[in-house]
Design goal:
Helices cover about 0% and strands about 50% of the residues. It is built from no helices and 11 strands. Strands 2, 4, 5, 6, 9, 10 and 11 form a 7-stranded mixed β-sheet that branches. A 4-stranded antiparallel β-sheet has the order 1-3-8-7, with no helix packed on it. A hairpin with a 4-residue loop joins β7 and β8.
């Protein structure tokens, strides 16, 4: 499975962005999916996860109430809707497909990773 993340860009603090992650090669509709983010010199940080059907989601405390993860299995796409963005949300955002049907906050649970999309939030 190849994953292509898109939708990143430059936004002012308080603004919104929607990231998309599209799969190619084969469907990931049976896999849990996740979003992570990373800054240079720092560990990859969990952001949000969703199970295969989309009826179970989990977001990190740092983005709770601001970010929402969703998916459209008909389009083989997972989304990360980001609102009330803060400068500390600046990072490269990666989507990933889990080895099983549920989502997880553990990067080790994911077998396929997208190339990342840069989100920059200015103050």
């Amino acid at each position: 499975v190849q994953l292509q993340a898109s939708g990143g860009g430059l936004v002012q603090a308080g603004g919104s962005l929607r990231l998309s992650c599209a799969a190619s090669g084969r469907s990931f509709s049976g896999n849990g999916m996740g979003w992570f983010r990373q800054n240079p010199g720092k560990e990859r940080e969990f952001v949000a996860a969703i199970n295969w059907s989309g009826d179970s989601t989990y977001v990190a405390d740092s983005v709770k109430g601001r970010f929402t993860i969703s998916r459209d299995n008909a389009r083989d796409t997972v989304y990360l809707q980001m609102a009330s963005l803060k400068p500390e949300d600046t990072a490269v955002y990666y989507c990933a497909a889990a080895r099983f049907s549920g989502g997880s906050s553990n990067p080790g649970s994911y077998t396929s990773w997208g190339q990342g999309t840069l989100v920059t939030v200015s103050s």
